[in-house]
Amino acid sequence: MSAEKRNAGYRAAEEVEDGMVVGLGTGSTVFFAMERLGKRIAEDRLSIAGVPTSYQAAIRARRYGIPLTSLDEYPELDIAIDGADQVDPALCLIKGRGAALLREKCVCDAAQRAVIVVDGTKMVEALNAPVPVEVLPFAVEAVSRRLAALGADPVLREAVKKDGPVVTDNGNFILDCSFGTIADPGRLETAIASIPGTLECGLFSAYTEKITVIVGEEKGCSVVSLH
Ligand SMILES: O=C(CO)[C@H](O)[C@H](O)COP(=O)(O)O
């Protein structure tokens, strides 16, 4: 599995050109892209700045020698590189296993292009994984009821190595919501977004035109886009 992830990440790093400002996603696959970018900075004098989507991404980027900046400094990014949990044939995504979906969506929205790095197990005919929803703790019960009315059975994500719920980098909770097979991701995303107290959900259905998916294979990778 890590060979596939490495191949996808390394290939994504080749999409980055000198002078670019790069959104840096969260997760094990995108870290390979960061590792490669760090190498290009050190060996090829690549000059870039990264906008990290989480504390974890920021820590990794620093370790690899990638200079960091912010979305305030650069509200428009040249490119974002990120992972995903599922990708459907229309290039709609489910993200958020790492609970970084809110900043990841801000960065994806701000980027001219989004390069999504996955292994082949993430490519599905229809999205059916639980959708993470970032929720204001104040409203968690009310939001939970509204999500249940949409057909989910929301589960408050529990932390590992900490008692109680996961608290995101933004101070919020995560509800993991299984909807079964999602027939219309855009419609569901809009319905979830309309619930007061919901910050974001892990459905990414509005960026299909600017997304390129790099699917890592045992040897090499394949590239999927709608254009
Ligand atoms: O959305 C994410 C974090 O919130 C990740 O990008 C997604 O979960 C993929 O992670 P990995 O590359 O480790 O499989």
Topology:
Elements: H1 2-13, E1 21-24, H2 28-44, E2 49-52, H3 55-63, E3 77-83, E4 86-87, E5 93-94, H4 101-110, E6 111-119, E7 131-135, H5 140-149, E8 155-156, E9 173-177, H6 185-193, E10 198-201, E11 203-204, E12 211-216, E13 221-225
Parallel strand pairs: 1-2, 1-3, 3-6, 6-12
Antiparallel strand pairs: 4-5, 5-11, 7-9, 7-10, 8-9, 12-13
The structure holds ribulose-5-phosphate.
Ribulose-5-phosphate is lined by residues 25-29, 82-85, 95-101, 104.
CATH domain topology of the largest domain: Rossmann fold
CATH architecture of the largest domain: 3-Layer(aba) Sandwich
Please provide the ordered H/E string of secondary-structure elements. Answer: HEHEHEEEHEEHEEHEEEE
How far apart are the first and last residues' alpha carbons, in Å?
A: 28 Å
Strand order of the largest sheet: 2-1-3-6-12-13
Main sheet characteristics: 6 strands, mixed
Give the overall form. Answer: globular
Multimer state: single chain
How many strand elements?
13
Q: Which percent range fits the helix content?
A: 25-40%
Whole-number tally of structural domains: 2
Low-confidence stretches: none
Q: What structural class do helix, strand and pairing data support?
A: alpha/beta
Count of DSSP-assigned helices: 6
Give the averaged pLDDT, no decimals: 98
CATH classification, class level of the largest domain: Alpha Beta
The ligands bound in this entry are:
ribulose-5-phosphate
